[in-house]
């Protein structure tokens, strides 16, 4: 059941025009509900829940044959565990006092859920990229998820404790300063703010800017529909087919993907439905993606336009309830696929023209383009430039929160002193410790045979 504060959270979006004085007062009053330094308090002996049980409870709506793959991927390192354990962190955050300053949460704002991809105008933008858990909720939960990810990634990839501390500080400073700027900005200026690739690269040193620009250009050029077409298709028996790579990609004969595609069409605006109708569905496969998403039903669809050189790939992904719903109340949307898409549109400056949703056979789904110039860093690439990358992520998170929350109240809550930053910094270290303990429990459960793991993961 939702917590006692859930109704307050769910009813607090959107922000009205209110006068500046009352909005600042609301931010300062929130310090009484959730003292800023208290965010760093962690009692490892008084958690009140079993992290492994929280993870196992998510299996109820997942494809059972893929659960061993999920377990194996999460067990690979504390970082992969952290990526897959959003539900565990939501339960930990939801048991604590919160500010009541509501934004549209990304819900899983870890470092590698920020990336570059093409806007509808075909310009590269740096933004949040994953919204499976999106829901209105307290702004500091996204901040906590982000800064803890900085420390977990740093430890996993050999960054010193001092380097991790600097990166967390830089991330929080970028968030605070950017939010303060939005507090003085016009609403339309906040809404239209876009972090271009040049602006993203601006936080790096000149040598890294040059190398980064070249890397991004190469990756974006490859990660297109035509690039996927060259890599992932073949002619077999006179027909164009997506290549198989079990268990990552496998054909299924149950007709589910085709059923979902037909339902998805109705979720599009007229002009986008017109564009979609210029393509013909050619082939579908079941796909395994991510870490925490493994086990959710995902389909990759190949469509063909005017000829064999005009492909379109769509990804249809199952959407369950947000892990924050027990603490923030249910989504106002009837289906979780629509919840994801509407949250994505609220948080991102520019959104894929083909996003939509569907439902079939008792499950909800959302749809998006596959790849479409998406450039996502990996941990090994980010680690040597952790401070700079965390700075860029902190600034983007502030932008997303300012779009849907009240930047004046959030700025007043954070204040000009060090209380918020110190509390969040302490939390990041403590939660990284907790993640390592939880990861060890998962590894032990797999080693003992209590949980299954697929060979090779």
UniProtKB/TrEMBL annotation:
InterPro entries: DUF2252
UniProt feature, compositional bias: Basic and acidic residues: 29-45
Region called Disordered, residue ranges: 1-45
Family annotation (PANTHER family): DUF2252 DOMAIN-CONTAINING PROTEIN
Protein name stated in the entry: Uncharacterized conserved protein, DUF2252 family
Record organism: Geodermatophilus aquaeductus
Lineage: Bacteria, Bacillati, Actinomycetota, Actinomycetes, Geodermatophilales
């Amino acid at each position: 059941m939702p917590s006692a504060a859930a109704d307050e959270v769910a009813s607090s979006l959107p922000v009205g025009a209110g006068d500046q004085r009352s909005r600042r007062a609301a931010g300062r009053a929130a310090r009484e509900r959730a003292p800023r330094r208290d965010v760093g308090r962690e009692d490892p002996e008084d958690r009140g829940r079993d992290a492994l049980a929280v993870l196992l409870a998510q299996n109820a709506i997942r494809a059972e044959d893929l659960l061993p793959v999920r377990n194996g991927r999460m067990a690979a390192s504390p970082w992969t565990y952290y990526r897959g354990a959003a539900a565990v962190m939501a339960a930990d955050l939801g048991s604590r006092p919160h500010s009541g300053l509501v934004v549209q949460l990304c819900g899983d704002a870890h470092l590698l859920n920020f990336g570059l991809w093409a806007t509808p105008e075909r310009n590269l933008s740096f933004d949040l990229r994953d919204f499976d858990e999106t829901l209105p909720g307290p702004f500091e939960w996204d901040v906590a998820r982000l800064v803890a990810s900085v420390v977990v990634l740093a430890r996993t990839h050999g960054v010193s404790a001092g380097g991790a501390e600097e990166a967390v500080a830089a991330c929080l400073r970028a968030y605070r300063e950017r939010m303060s700027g939005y507090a003085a900005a016009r609403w339309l200026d906040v809404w239209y703010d876009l972090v271009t690739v040049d602006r993203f690269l601006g936080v790096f040193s000149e040598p890294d800017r040059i190398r980064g620009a070249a890397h991004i250009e190469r990756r974006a050029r490859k990660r297109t529909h035509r690039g996927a077409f060259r890599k992932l298709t073949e002619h077999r028996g006179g027909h164009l087919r997506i290549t198989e790579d079990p268990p990552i990609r496998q054909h299924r004969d149950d007709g589910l993907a085709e059923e979902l595609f037909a339902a998805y069409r109705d979720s599009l605006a007229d002009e986008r439905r017109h564009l979609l109708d210029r393509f013909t569905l050619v082939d579908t496969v079941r796909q395994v993606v991510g870490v925490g998403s493994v086990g959710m039903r995902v389909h990759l669809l190949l469509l063909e336009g005017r000829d064999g050189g005009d492909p379109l790939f769509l990804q249809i992904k199952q959407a369950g309830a947000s892990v924050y719903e027990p603490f923030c109340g249910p989504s106002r949307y009837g289906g979780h696929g629509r919840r994801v898409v509407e949250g994505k549109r609220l948080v991102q400056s520019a959104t894929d023209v083909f996003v939509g949703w569907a439902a079939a056979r008792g499950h909800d789904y959302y749809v998006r383009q596959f790849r479409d110039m998406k450039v996502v860093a990996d941990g090994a690439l980010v680690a040597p430039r952790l401070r700079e990358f965390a700075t860029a992520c902190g600034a983007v998170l502030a932008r997303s929160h300012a779009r849907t929350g009240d930047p004046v109240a959030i700025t007043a809550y954070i204040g000009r002193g060090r209380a918020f930053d110190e509390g969040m910094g302490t939390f990041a270290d403590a939660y990284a410790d907790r993640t390592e303990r939880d990861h060890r429990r998962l590894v032990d459960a797999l080693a003992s045979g209590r949980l299954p793991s697929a060979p090779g993961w």
